[in-house]
Amino acid sequence: MSETAIAKLFMHGRSQAVRLPKEFRMPGAEVKVSRIGDKVILEPIETRPFDAKNFWAAIDSLTGGEFPDVGDDDLHPNLDDDVSLD
User: Which stretches does the entry tag as region Disordered (predicted)?
Assistant: First the structure.
């Protein structure tokens, strides 16, 4: 059985937005939007559980999998001891 209701349209900055009635609320912060003919369809986006293995694989792909060799001297900049604020 399909439900029908009236929703309000309004402008949010330069974007058009729709205020959904309470019975049509969806979980999450984003929805998938598609158009079929003259209809606009909003669908909830399934949230996938966090996958640490994929996360670190993505990080490794950015760095080539190798971190640079960093020594203690690289972590502390050489500063002049004679700093004058005059």
Answer: 67-86
CATH of the domain at 13: 2.10.260
Q: pTM score, two decimals? A: 0.49
Q: Report the pLDDT value the prediction gives residue 65, as an integer from 0 to 100.
A: 62
11: left (phi over 0), alpha (psi -120 to 50) or beta: beta
Cα separation, 71 vs 78, whole angstroms: 14
One-letter amino acid at 52 equals: A
Nearest to 40 by CA among 29, 31, 48, 27: 31
pLDDT single digits (tens) 50-72: 889 999 888 888 876 667 777 77
Which residue range(s) make up the domain with 23? 8-44
Domain contains 58: no
> In this predicted structure, what is the pLDDT of residue 83?
67
Is residue 83, in this structure, part of any structural domain at all?
no
